[in-house]
Design brief:
InterPro entries: Epimerase_deHydtase, NAD(P)-bd_dom_sf, UDP_G4E. With about 350 residues, this protein is of the alpha/beta class. The protein is built from 11 helices and 14 strands. Helix 6 links the parallel strand 5 and strand 6. It binds nicotinamide-adenine-dinucleotide and uridine-5'-diphosphate-4-deoxy-4-fluoro-alpha-D-galactose. Nicotinamide-adenine-dinucleotide (NAD) binds next to helix 1, strand 2, helix 5, strand 5 and strand 7.
Length: about 350
């Protein structure tokens, strides 16, 4: 059985579904601070059976001890965490407490229970302002410019220390690039509870008339069209990276770092044009100054994951956007039906 912390969230729910599709038993631990119980129903509908679900906090040591005693957990995928970069600047202690404290408590409980296989949701943000593209795993980690990024780097460092202290540990640090899109069924996707910060969730709300215009942060970057370039990866590809990592960890010990990205960067304006093509919906733009802390370019060298995990991202940008738009339209339809009733 695989325990997924944060398994009701955007990434964790897709990981849960992928694992269940591979006949794994899944137990989800989530405090629902940024997700809803309905995600569990949606996973169940798509998988044809229910994952185990416990509403609770990953910082609750007593709860973790109980779960690891009562369920036959072989490995943990640790997705639980807070992820809003801007918010982390204003509430650093909440971010360190949740993201670093949660990881620490989880590692302590796992060690005590004798569960030593762990996959961690890390982020390309740990590379800081790396200027050599593409970024491979031996690039130095930078000095993240915000508490969110710092909390990911600190959690990584805790896991590295833990792994060097005891050879029984087998840890995968997955450095995600920019996950977007939704499950092709339109039943599972990102459902931000507050105003979105990330490009695609914001764009989707503009496309569906919930917001007036999409701000383009910075038009003077040293890129072909002046806007920032990122490596957008389909959420299903990303989730499959986790199942491959878990499989590979069966034959590996210590800390293993893998980039999960496509290896191809797109600018903000390229992404907007592709969305307009795919959806047929024009997106009003508001050109703004650069957003503090943003890097110019960030895209992955995914070769290590290809060699060691036999994994590669397969979906095109158009598919990511079409799937995201289908999810957004379904969400709106559901809301209208609920309001009409
Ligand atoms: P999300 O907010 O949709 O999911 C996180 C889930 O964790 C939520 O369901 C939330 O309720 C839960 N959670 C938060 N704190 C918890 C706690 N203390 N105990 C139990 N549950 C808790 O976010 P996501 O996009 O699915 O991100 C998952 C992980 O991946 C996060 O750690 C995030 O930092 C990391 N990550 C995300 C991105 C991205 O762009 N989405 C990029 C890099 C890394
Ligand atoms: N952008 C806009 N307008 C918006 C939002 C974003 O122009 O409304 C631009 C940004 O300036 C950037 C690009 O779109 O050039 C992507 O921005 P996102 O906020 O979608 O993503 P980031 O690359 O800033 O960060 C994301 C996650 C981090 C994660 C990182 C990994 O938010 O958690 O990817 O690369 F660490």
């Amino acid at each position: 059985m695989i325990l997924i912390t944060g398994g009701a969230g955007y990434i964790g729910a897709h990981v849960a579904l992928e694992l269940m599709n591979k006949d794994e038993d899944v137990l989800i631990l989530d405090n629902l601070c940024n997700s809803q119980r309905s995600a569990i129903d949606r996973i169940s509908t798509l998988a044809g059976r229910r994952p185990g679900f416990v509403q609770g906090d990953v910082r609750n040591r007593h709860l973790l001890d109980t779960l690891l005693r009562d369920y036959p957990v072989d490995a943990v995928v640790h997705c639980a965490g807070l992820k809003a970069v801007g918010e982390s600047v204003h509430e650093p202690l909440r971010y360190y407490d949740n993201n670093v404290g949660g990881s620490l408590t989880l590692c302590q409980a796992m060690a005590q229970a004798g569960v030593f296989t762990l996959v961690f949701s890390s982020s390309a943000t740990v590379y800081g302002d790396c200027t050599t593209m593409p970024i491979n795993e031996s690039c130095a980690t930078g000095q993240p410019t915000n508490p969110y990024g710092m909390s990911k780097l600190m959690a990584e460092n805790i896991m590295k220390s833990v792994a060097s202290s005891d050879p029984r540990w087998s840890i995968g640090l997955l450095r995600y690039f920019n996950p977007i899109g939704a499950h092709p069924s339109g039943l599972l996707g990102e459902a931000p509870l507050n105003q979105p910060n990330n490009l695609l969730p914001y764009l989707l709300q503009v496309a569906s008339g919930q917001r007036e215009a999409l701000s383009v942060f910075g038009t003077d970057y040293a890129t072909p069209d002046g806007t920032g370039v990122r490596d957008y990866i389909h959420i299903v590809d990303l989730a499959q990276g986790h199942t491959c990592a878990l499989e590979a960890l069966g034959q590996r010990s210590g800390v293993n770092i893998w980039n999960l990205g496509t290896g191809r960067g797109y600018s903000v304006l390229e992404l907007v044009s592709a969305f307009e093509r795919v959806s047929g919906v024009p997106i009003p733009l508001a050109f703004k100054a650069r957003r503090p802390g943003d890097v110019t370019c960030c895209w992955a060298d995914p070769q290590k994951a290809a060699d060691e995990l036999a994994w590669r991202a397969r979906h095109s940008l158009e598919t990511m956007l079409a799937d995201a738009w289908r999810w957004q339209c379904n969400q709106l339809q559901t809301e209208w039906v609920q309001q009409a009733n």
